[in-house]
Amino acid sequence: MKLFCLLSITWILSMPNIQGQNSKKAFSKLSGPEKCWVIFHPFKAKRAYKTSLEAIRITDSIQQTKLLDGDANGGQIDAFRHAYWMASLAQEIGRRSARSLGKAHEKGNYKQFKKGKLEEGSVPDAQASEMDLFNNSIGLELYKNNKKATKEEFIVFILKKINNGDLRILKKDQKGNYLDCNGLPISKSTYKGIWETPKCLIPSKK
After folding, report:
1. pLDDT mean over 155-174
2. Cβ atoms within 10 A of the Cβ of 38, count?
3. Domain ranges of the chain
4. What is the spatial distance between Cα 99 and Cα 83, in angstroms, rounded to a whole number?
């Protein structure tokens, strides 16, 4: 097993630059769980990385439009990113591998929380992780039922699901402050340094 891991890491770090980024540098930025995923999926890692970059690019493009709420941290844009990432990733490397990478990413978020590090501008928490995993599952299911769909078709499908309320977002007021499930504002001091927060998951339709 140690030999396999060593050979896998050597192969990964020797890969040519991916879209202008050095493989070694990209690998070093991953969380522990994500690095483990790469080690055990060395021949899918490059495709997964390229697909992930493309998902970010597509999400950024959608964010520039008025199709969704523009909220990349707990809002519709955030939901879109995860669903599209999983659908396109499953199409590229298979549904099981995509699901395991999504789970590894969320495990990495928990480790980021323990270290006080940010994800998309804020410290991750249990409710944000639950939201991501839910939206990941929607993307995986979408791929399962539309394996031959184009990337453009996946975009249309996901936008429709968001507007139908099939994905999940975090409840906020018009100023972007988090609300609990009773619609009451949540003080940041209430959940600072706490994994389980009073944040509330709601359907993505607003």
Report:
1. 97
2. 22
3. 45-203
4. 11
Residue written as token pair 């994800």 = 119
Handedness of CA 95, 101, 104, 110 (dihedral sign): negative
- CA–CA distance, 138 with 28 (Å, rounded to integer): 29
Phi, psi (5° rounding) for residue 141? -65, -40
Q: Tens digits of per-residue pLDDT, 61-91?
A: 999 998 999 999 999 999 999 999 999 999 9
Residues across the chain: 206
Assign residue 57 a region (left: φ > 0; alpha: ψ between -120 and 50; beta: otherwise): alpha
CB contact at 8 A, 100 and 37: yes
100-127 pLDDT, tens digit per residue, is 999 998 888 888 787 766 555 567 889 9
What are the structure tokens assigned to 115, written together? 């270290």
For residue 119, give the nearest of 174, 82, 150, 66 by alpha carbon: 82
End-to-end CA distance of the chain: 49
- Among 82, 58, 77, which residue's Cα sits nearest to residue 132? 82
> Crossing angle, helix 76-93 and helix 151-164, to 10 degrees?
140
